[in-house]
Amino acid sequence: MSDAPFQHKPVLTLECLKNEAIQFAERESRRKESSLFGITDGKAIGTYFEQRFREYLRSRYEFQGGSSSSSIDFPELGVDIKVTSIRQPQSSSPFRSARQKVYGLGYSLLIFVYDKEDDVVTKTAVLQIVHVVFVDKERTGDFQTTTGLLQILQNQGNEDDIVAFLEERRLPVDEIGAIALAQEILRNPPKVGYLTISNALQWRLQYRRVIETAGSVEGVERLR
């Protein structure tokens, strides 16, 4: 007797990823986990949650995993996962160029925001997922930088005005790079970004604004 035909899992799409993020967040918000009891390291909690989410997706879909070269979790979809505490909603992101502050990171973000609760009686922890937000890649620029540039353009600013603004914002770019970026901004004005991006060896991304505006602005979608 021949074996039953192998059933291929469906390919993970962006819409599937969003839907599964909602389902997974609801499930995890009810689950008690002893290994997280007493843990306060946000990076360790984020790594734990991301691994569980990827395992959950692996059991249901086919998808390419992230790699060191891609630096994001779902390169085929152009999406990176971020897991952060509601008490200080922020994380880091690889620095590529100052241009990311203006035009975005180059990929979308799927952000899980948790509120961790420890139960001293059962010695377990629950990650209450209080927000799940999807930020389109075109909206991952820095809010103050993009809104400031758009105001300059509205006021008929020129290349010199833009270069001066970039210097005031202390973008990590040299004079030649600032001029090239200013010329690009004049040709192709950026869209408003909703992240707060602080300069560092890696970008420090802060998410309070995307949490507050999710569902009310284009490109920032509240999933939960």
Describe the protein in words.
The chain is built from seven helices and seven strands; from the N terminus they run ααββαββαααββαβ. With 224 residues, the chain is α+β, with helices and mostly antiparallel strands. The chain has a four-stranded mixed beta sheet. α4 packs antiparallel against α5. The longest helix is centred in the first third of the chain and has 17 residues, at 42-58. The chain is elongated, with a radius of gyration of 20 Å. The mean pLDDT is 92.
The major sheet is characterized as: 4 strands, mixed
Question: Low-confidence spans: pLDDT under 50, at least 5 residues?
Answer: none
Q: Sum up the overall morphology in one term.
A: elongated
**Tally of domains:** 2
Terminal CA distance: 48 Å
Kindly provide the radius of gyration, computed on alpha-carbon positions and rounded to a whole number of angstroms.
20 Å
Written as H for each helix and E for each strand, in order along the chain, the element string is HHEEHEEHHHEEHE
**Helix proportion range:** 25-40%
Percent of residues in beta strands? 15-25%
State mean pLDDT (0 to 100 scale).
92
| Overall number of strands | 7
Task: Describe the oligomeric state of these chains in a short phrase.
Answer: single chain
| Spatial ordering of strands, largest sheet | 1-3-4-7
Q: Count every helix, treating DSSP H or I runs of 4 or more residues as helices.
A: 7
Alpha-beta classification: alpha+beta
